[in-house]
Amino acid sequence: MARTYSPSELHEKYGREELLDLVERAHKRITDVIDGVQSEERDLSSDEDAAVRRDRDFCTAAEAAVSIHDRLGETRDRAQQVQRELSRMRGEGRGPGQLQTRQALAGFDANLRAGVPQRLTVSASDLEVYNRAATTATAGESTAVVARSGRPPFIWAALGMNFQPATSNRVQGPTWQPLVSQPATAEGGTKPEMVDSVLDDQELAPYGVTYDISDQVARFGVGETAVADRLSAEAVFSANGGIINRFELHGSEIAFVSDAPTSLDTGIAEVVSRTGGATGVVINAADYPAVAARSATSAGDVESGTVAGYNGLRLFMHPEMASGHAIVVNGAWLSAHATDVLLASLPNLSDNTIRVRAEVYAAVLIGDASAVQRVDIASAA
User: Fold this and answer.
1) Residue 183: which pLDDT band, with cuts at 50, 70 and 90?
2) What are the phi and psi torsion angles at 193 (to 5°)?
3) Residue 210: CB atoms within 10 Å
4) Could you identify which of 70, 217, 366, 381 might form a hypothetical disulfide with 213, taking C-beta atoms 3.0 to 4.6 angstroms apart as the criterion?
5) Residue 197 · residue 175 · CB < 8 Å
């Protein structure tokens, strides 16, 4: 009996054109057999029937193998096109996703200097990776002073949460209760009841920051670039704090156990056992010395590379996190929703000031009740 090949085996064994030629030959053999039987007005013999079936099966597998060649070819073409575009962009000194942001913010700066009221939306993901340097000249000096501006990461990016741009003011998603190990059920018996989950319904909260600056700051001082960067950083910082505040109200808290690292490990173990993993830990900076002994030392453990992670998990610090407490999360069961960052300016001609505002709407849905676990890491004594 002739061997039957799978589509993947045929793809590895033959090239695309070879497969097309073999399919054409098989079709011809099938046609010759059918024509011969019809001309003789008889049924197919067992050998003829087997041969026709083999050829038909081969044609089906070969045509699937040709489709594999076509898909891989399209993928290679797209990959080469993307690589060429990335090479071109790197040659121009920019990264993917940043050119549009760079052009938009440059226009915002120019209009702000000109005293033109405006609104600009910038992709939250682009804004997060985009960093600029502002310069200012001191009075009587020709040397520029660099004012390097920084921006904290969004909490969902830092802790591995799912992210989706918000398209409405409210977001909803299922909240599953903690997993329960069900007993085995005999075939034909009553299956465990499966019911719809309760929806987590959240309204996106606005986090906006407004500065009033003089036109001299924009024209001669640190510049509107630094102001816009600082506003954006504070909007992101505020959104992170609001999300942490919600986490602090979620579920019950694991009690303190002997010391801070042991307590935190207990919380991590609880989240892992209930959800299959953990992606990060949130603490107040004041509590870092208490857990530092068990922190990793690799600079790649967190986004900034300046603070070590905890036991291989990302460590996120924020002053909104209550001191003496921590939160363990599994970002795989959380989904963040946020709008683009809005930058706006409005000049006041009566006193030559400019009001600049940055604003972002954000919310996080908790998809599994066990994906956020509060932990007491400080002894009551």
Assistant:
1) confident
2) -70, 135
3) 13
4) 217
5) yes
Cα dihedral sign for 43, 46, 52, 56? Answer: positive
E strands, 50-161, are 118-122, 133-137, 144-148
| Residue 169, token pair as written in the block | 């003011």
Question: What is the total residue count of the chain?
Answer: 381
How confident is the model over 347-351, as a mean pLDDT? 78
Residue 224 phi/psi, 5-degree rounding, is -70, -25
Picking from 90-104, 251-265, 285-299, 364-378, which range would have the lowest pLDDT averaged per residue?
Answer: 90-104
Q: Which of 268, 236, 211 is nearest to 362 (CA)?
A: 236
Of 255, 328, 318, nearest to 287 by C-alpha is 318
Top-level CATH class of 99-180+197-376? alpha beta
* CA–CA dist 24, 28 (Å, integer): 6
Q: Which residues touch 230 (CB under 8 Å, ≥6 apart)?
A: 149, 211
Q: How does strand 280-283 pair with strand 325-329?
A: antiparallel
Looking at residue 330, its pLDDT comes to: 92
CB atoms within 10 A of CB 362: 25
Closest C-alpha to 166, from 120, 200, 124: 124
Q: How far apart are the C-alpha atoms of 222 and 346, rounded to whole Å?
A: 19
Site of tokens 């924009």:
218
**Cα(50)–Cα(275) distance, rounded to whole angstroms?**
53
**Residue 84 token pair:** 């060429």
Distance CA 98, CA 103 (A): 9
Place of tokens 């999300």: 243
Buried b (16+ CB within 10 A) or exposed e, 305-340: eebbbbbebbbbbbebbbebbbbbbbbbbbbbbbbb
Nearest alpha-carbon partner for 127 in 340, 362, 380: 340
Using the structure block, give the residue that is written with the tokens 């030559």. Answer: 352
Show the tokens assigned to 80.
């080469």
Q: Which residue has the tokens 């300046």?
A: 306
- For residues 159 and 316, the answer to whether their CB atoms sit within 8 Å is yes
- Taking the C-alpha atoms of residue 98 and residue 104, their distance in angstroms, rounded to an integer, is 10
Strand, coil or helix: 175? strand
